[in-house]
C-alpha cells in the first residue's frame, strides 16, 4: 500500500484554532502524517480519494468507554445505576474470561471505528488476571484503533486468585508498562483507571500514586452520586494529587468549587450524557464545567445500556443543556452553548485531555492522519450549510464513509476493511452466551440487587465504611 494519500476536493473541517475550515480543499498525507492542507495540492505517486460532496474532519475521541461490556449490549436498557452495579459489576464481571474480554474489546473497538471514533479511552475495569489484561490490550491492537488502555484496578465482589491484593494488581500494571506498553509512541498507550474512589481512600491514594510512578494518565469515576464527607476532588486537592494528567468521569454532582479545582489543576472531565441521564447520576455537568473553564469531553460509557456513537452523545449533551438553561430563562434570548462547541469536545479538547493534543484531535500539518470522511451529499446533510453545525445537528454514524488512523485506511465506502465481520459477530455472541450461562441467565442478573442496597445507601449516598 502506498504511504502517500491525497484526499481531494472535500469540505475540510479542521477543528484546529490555527487552521480555518476550507471548501474544496485537499489533504496530503505521508507516512501516516498530515503534511499539507489546502486547495489544489500537487502530489505524485500517491493514492487519491476524490471527495467531492464529502466532509473530511478529525476522527472522534471517546474519552470514556468500558469496551469489555460489548457482549452485554442493551441488556441494561432499563437499569438504574444501582441495577447496573448489581448486574454488571457484581454479577457479570466475574463471569468474564480472557477470551470474552477479547471479544468484547474487539467488537467494541470496531463498532467505535465504524462510527468515526479513531481514539478510545478504554476504562478497562474487568481485569481479573494478567491474561484478562493481555486479552483486552490485544483486541485494541488488533482493531487498529488508537487507544488509551486504562488499566482498571477495580476488583470484583471477591478478590480473584490471580490478584489477591491491590498491590498485586499494581504489580501487573507495572509489568505491562515495562513490557508491551513501555512505549508512548504506539497507537495503544497505557493509562490507569481508578477503582471508585474513597472505598477506602487509602487504596485510591495508592492507585493514584501508581499512575504517577508509571508516568501515565489516570481516569476516575467521580461524584456521580451524593457522598457524605469530602468529595474525591477535595481529597485529592488536600493531598496535592490533582493534575493535568487526571480525567474525571461524570462529576454530575461536583460542586462549582470542585470544578474550579479541576480547572486550576489542568485536569479534564468526561461527560457521558446518555448513561448519566438514564441511570440517575444527575444532569450532565457540561454547562457548569464549561462555565468553570474545565476542559470538557464526551464518552459513550456503556453499550450494555446505551448507544456507542458520539453523534448521539454530542446532540444529547447539547440539547439537555439547552433544555435546562431554557427552563431557567423562560423564553431564552439566545442559546449559550453553541453546536460547534460540541465538535471541539469530541476532537481537540479530548485529545488534549489525554495528553495527545500534539498528535491527534485536529487536522493540521505535522499531526497524525486520524480522520473521517462524512457523506455530506447524503439526504440528511443536503444542502450543506454551516458544516460544523450540520455535523453536530444532522449527521449520524451511518454517514461515516471512511476512517483513517495514523494514515491507515480502516473503513472505506461504508465498510470496515480487513475485518472478518462474521467471525467478530460470532465471537461476541459466543461471549454473551458463555457469560450469561455462567451467571445462570438474564433472570439472575438483578437477584443480588437487595444485597447491594445494604452496602449502598441510594438515598443519601455511600454508607461510610461499608465497602
Ligand atoms: Zn464508566
List the helices and strands and how they pair.
Elements: E1 4-12, E2 22-30, E3 33-38, E4 47-50, E5 54-58, E6 60-65, H1 81-92, H2 98-114, E7 117-124, H3 130-143, E8 146-152, H4 166-178, E9 188-193, H5 201-214, E10 218-222, H6 232-238, E11 246-250, H7 256-265, E12 268-271, H8 273-279, H9 286-291, E13 295-298, H10 310-329, H11 339-345, H12 348-353, E14 371-375, H13 387-393, E15 400-405, E16 408-412, E17 415-416, H14 421-439, H15 449-455, E18 456-457, E19 461-462
The structure holds zinc ion.
Residues 64, 66, 123, 221, 249, 301 line the site of zinc ion.
What structural category characterises the helix and strand content? alpha/beta
> What is the alpha-carbon Rg in Å?
22 Å
Count the domains: 2
Bound molecules: zinc ion
CATH homologous superfamily heading of the largest domain: Metal-dependent hydrolases
Please give the count of helices. 15
Detail the poorly predicted runs: 458-467
Shape estimate: globular
**CATH architecture field of the largest domain:** Alpha-Beta Barrel
Number of strands: 19
What does this structure look like?
This protein has 467 residues and is of the alpha/beta class. It folds into 2 domains: 4-58 and 368-416, Roll (Urease, subunit C, domain 1), CATH 2.30.40; 60-353, Metal-dependent hydrolases (TIM Barrel). The protein has 15 helices and 19 strands. The protein has helices at 81-92, 98-114, 130-143, 166-178, 201-214, 232-238, 256-265, 273-279, 286-291, 310-329, 339-345, 348-353, 387-393, 421-439, 449-455, and strands spanning 4-12, 22-30, 33-38, 47-50, 54-58, 60-65, 117-124, 146-152, 188-193, 218-222, 246-250, 268-271, 295-298, 371-375, 400-405, 408-412, 415-416, 456-457, 461-462. Strands 1, 2, 3, 4, 5, 14, 15, 16 and 17 form a 9-stranded mixed β-sheet that branches. It has an 8-stranded parallel β-sheet with strand order 6-7-8-9-10-11-12-13. A two-stranded antiparallel sheet has the order 18-19. A hairpin with a 2-residue loop joins strand 2 and strand 3. Helix 2 (98-114) runs parallel beside helix 3 and helix 4 packs parallel to helix 5. The protein is globular, with a radius of gyration of 22 Å. The model is unreliable at 458-467 (pLDDT under 50). Bound molecules: zinc ion. Zinc ion (ZN) binds at residues 64, 66, 123, 221, 249, 301.
